[in-house]
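Limitations
The structure tokens in this dataset are predictions for the assembled complex, not deposited experimental models. Users should treat interface geometry with appropriate caution, especially where small molecules or nucleic acid strands are included. An illustrative entry is reproduced here so readers can see what is and is not provided.
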Amino acid sequence: MKGLFCSYSASSDEEYKKLIKMRMRFFIGLFILGLITCAITLMAEFVWSVTFDDYMLGVYLGVAIGLMIMSPVLWVRNKRLLNNDEKRKQMRIATNDERVQSISKKAFRAAACVLLAAMYAGGLIGGIFYPILAKVLLFSVCIFLVAYSVAYIIIQKKM
Amino acid sequence: MKTKIQELRKAHKVTQNELADAVCVTRQTIISLENGRYNASLVLAHKIAQFFKVAIEEIFIFNEKEENI
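Predicted assembly:
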């Protein structure tokens, strides 16, 4: 999952250290998000008497607990990276490597095409049985296309 | 694009790892460059040329037919 959400360049060790510290703050934010999601879900179910489908209750709690477990693990991993010069250098080179970034961009593009096709097909076929599914999936396809167009225009003006 | 990276590396008695460390890329990138499977960016080409103290054109063989010029 190299470069999936973190496509960046850190040309020096100092810049990379700042990036690691920023990531550590991000993971703290993720943990808090997990905690809030878990709290809201449980309060909604037991205090506010909102009726949840069992499946959706499991999804919300699963996502929340997943965030709460993974974020400290990743925080510790990055903390160890800060304290180990050799490992940090290897990681910086591995993630900054232009070939790795190029592979990541191509993989991301391929995944986006597959996802679009799957959402479109799912929306058309699923819509036969559940019309709301068609609306959600096809709307998501539209959001993707609009977001892509806007991002293209903005980035084109910058470059 | 063909390159003379492997020849220059062996002439200078430098391993792929040492070259990769010197130009801040992974060893796999050096392997791909030597096999012609990956084309280096201008910055990386310049770094490699500076490392071997030769011109970029002496390392990276630009084939006009391949590039449709």
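Some entries come with short summary sentences. For this one: The helical segments of chain B are 5-11, 16-22, 27-35, 42-52, 56-59.
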